[in-house]
Amino acid sequence: MNRATLWFTAPRAVAVREEPLAEPGPGTVRVDVRASAISPGTEMLVYRGEFPAELALDATLAALAGGFRYPVRYGYASVGRVAALGAEVDAAWLGRRVFAFQPHASAYVAPTAELLPIPDDVDDEDALFLANMETAVNFLLDGAPLIGERVAVFGQGVVGLLTLALLARLPLTALVALDRWPARRARALTLGATEALDPIAAETPARLRALCGAEGGEDPAGFDLIFELSGAPAALDAAITAAAFDGRIVVGSWYGAKPVTLDLGRRFHRGRARLISSQVSTLTPALAGRWSKTRRLDVAWRQIAALRPAQLITQRLPLQQAAAAYHLIDSDPDTCLQVILTYGGGPLMYTVAVKRDFVAQHYLIGGDWGAENTLHSHHYVLEVQLEGDRLDRHGYLVDIVEIEQALDALVAAHRDHVLNDLPEFVGLNPSIEHFCRIAAEQLAARISAGTLTALVVKIWENEIAWAAYRLPLRKPA
Q: The domain 350-472 belongs to what CATH superfamily?
């Protein structure tokens, strides 16, 4: 059989090629891929030609063992289903959903030892985040956050947001997110950040000092623990400046071939800050006697089931549009967070959507949002998308009248109301992200078709700003 594969052919150039795929041999299986996730960190270094030429793509992964030289294949987050077995493979593997650290391709052949079965309580799209969640877990193992500490996370890309979401489950005194892009800072707040700041804003240094209990001066208390996950070399210098005496700075960014210039003659010289190199290929030696990669992966799967990271997906594009996908990531980091590539033949087959508009009021809480902190109106547009893998006996995914009735009831309950006053928003900042999740949960309770696998709510608060929430309903058949 033939398969489609993605190749990086030159800096900022990719191509999709068709090539033959051998049948699985002894001990191996063929996996038909449903989706793969583009890494906006390491993978974009490959895309931009910033990957160090002398290094292997990944010495710990068989599928990425070669060096960096165009044309090259890359990618390490693939989800699919076992479609064919080689000799000496247990029949139980057939049809199993699996994750693999494989480059982007519509199918591949691999030994079963390189496949990670997806737990039953994890959706396919959530499973795409395994590599990034394992990385986030590794950061916490290296940083070892303590109760009551002040923690800052530089960089709110996918790994930064997952790291922040894990930290938010701990009893910290402060958890501050820093990122240049407003949409990413907004997501950080929904995931548990106590504050989200623009690292290059003029007022940010003073605000950081205030958050650390300092009234001013040249030597504020600083943060006990900092994670530098932005991929921007200048952020490491900012992290050193923000660290407390004997503070820990976990450097999870990989800068590739980009040079890093640090000022080590001021706070660093007397501050005893510790720079901790963290990379998911290994475990910190301090834990090697009790932890293994298998244990770390188990923790990552459990955190995926709890946090449902598919909510971070901002674009889904077919493999044939890969060039557009990489250009989007490269050119629009504010609105483009996580792009996934999709492949034909997956179990998700049908989508039905209905849209309504209405006016409601709210005021934002939990931060200094200027005019947004006062009561104001939005002309919301709400779209519900219903996804499923089969039709009912009438040839419908779901009766459109049922969707309209459920959506009209939801809109009636919110139209011309102050969102802050409604029971479902008590204690919450009434962001459109929270509104999407609340709407999805309420609509799922009203629509009961057994054909559905997922429900997606997308809400616009103006012509250019929107958010979405995807709620899995059942596993595809």
A: 6-pyruvoyl tetrahydropterin synthase/QueD (3.30.479.10)
Q: Over the stretch 3-51, which tens digit does the pLDDT of each residue have?
A: 999 999 999 999 999 999 999 999 999 999 999 999 988 888 899 988 7
CA dihedral of 121, 123, 126, 127, whole degrees rounded to 10: 80
Map residue 300 onto helix, strand or coil. Answer: helix
Token pair for 391 = 């039709």
The pTM for the full model equals 0.71
Q: What are the C-alpha distances in Å from 407 to residues 19, 63, 400, 453?
A: 46, 46, 11, 18
Token pair in block for residue 58: 């990944």
Full DSSP string of 85-115: E-TT--GGGTT-EEEE---SBSEEEEEGGG-
Residue 219 has a pLDDT of 47
Beta strands 28-37 and 338-342 are antiparallel
Backbone angles phi, psi at 401, to 5 degrees: -65, -40
295-325 tens-digit pLDDT: 999 999 999 999 999 999 999 999 989 999 9
Cis check for the bond before 71: say yes or no (omega within 30 of 0): yes
Domain chopping of the chain, boundaries: 2-122+311-342, 132-285, 350-472
Structure tokens at 462: 């103006």
Residue pLDDT, tens place only, 84-108: 999 999 999 999 999 999 999 999 9
Does domain 132-285 correspond to CATH entry 3.40.50.720? yes
Tell me the backbone φ, ψ of residue 470, rounded to 5 degrees.
-110, 125
CATH hierarchy code of domain 2-122+311-342: 3.90.180.10
